[in-house]
What does this fold into?
Amino acid sequence: MPGLAIVGTQWGDEGKGKITDLLAEDASAIVRFQGGNNAGHTIVRDGEEFKFHLIPSGILHEDKYCVIGNGVVIDPKVLLEEIEGLRKAGISSANLKISANAHLIMPYHILLDTADELKLGKLSIGTTRRGIGPAYADKAFRIGIRVQDLLDEKILRKKIMAALENKRQQLQELTVRRRKLQKEAQPGEELPDERLDLHGLVEEFLGYGHRLEPFITDTTRLCWNELDAGNKVIFEGAQAALLDLDHGTYPFVTSSNPIAGAACVGAGVGPTDITEVWGVVKAYTTRVGSGPFPTELFDDNGAHMAERGVEFGTTTGRPRRCGWLDLVALKYATRLNGATSLAMTKLDVLAGLDTLSVAVRYRSKEGAVLDEFPYHQSVLHSATPEYVELPGFGDEIVDARSEDDLPPAAREYLSFVSDFVGVPITLVGVGPSREQVIWVNV
Ligand code: IMP
It folds into this structure.
């Protein structure tokens, strides 16, 4: 039985949660391997909407392990709120397992994320300001605090002290700049309180440790046991290929590796444990935050996507930038991930558009034809997409449940995409609920 990775192929928000929820049906474990509560996934079950940031999408399956792997960065306050939210909805978290090696997002990481973004001004990355970058930076710098540290007061105190010492200057700067930063902040945006006290932090985090202790597990061994027993394990990616720290549109990326290969590091399995890779692609493209986006639209077509697709960030509520499907980028992302299948979500959103454009190459500002996703950031920034226009479909497809129910133009769109990238489309989403999917063979 396979280890199966489900990953985003664009700039996130492709609807990975829904696909994971569906493919989890016959899995024994669902494992998150990177990112943190910068992610947001919405799952609609029996008309009820569930929003998660940290907890893997598999949590609604009470018979499966739901794992937060070592590669994830955890804000324990957010995690406990999610566990509490589930309890209130009558859903047990007994199957939740948290890696002792996962790193924690501390209050100073959130402060520094905000301060760094404000300092960058016009050049800001547009992070979710959840402390993701600073937490991963501390991990690499070897002054991070791990989940296991919560269980030992002496170690926790020592480690927080060392981490704070390292940040004293940056935090002092923040105090001095506070009034100025507050002026520069977005309307309604409150700067978090920069006054951090060691004793308070230790007490607060020991409390989290106490509440999280029942969930802390050797999650790597858990994955091995499930795989070795022949059970299906799903590795659920957050964010997406073009936000990958190494392969995405750096520096406008997240601070982890959302590509399938990172599941090995972020969960502790070998490459040969992953035998299927599902790339999730939205039928058009969206992006939150700054950075290049060659097929971005500023016209009625973009407005159609934003409105019909309800394109607002699950985590920050920010409007998402919208544009045509970019096949140059998709081909790059499917290769990076070694995708074996594609799941295309939100095809229904395109209904009613006269023609559907898909980018098949870029043109550089010097006029060169670029068939491949350019490795040079400046080239991508000034690249203009060249499109193929495909016929639109006027009819709603939200009730389609088989390939034959789709209008010919919708089927042509699917074939064009799969032919272009050379990966079959196996699943198509035609609405938000878990019933609104079609298994296809395109
Ligand atoms: P960070 O991950 O908060 O550091 O943000 C870095 C970039 O990744 C920003 O452009 C964010 O908007 C983007 N980003 C992070 N998480 C997500 C996500 O789940 N969906 C879409 N964009 C994301």
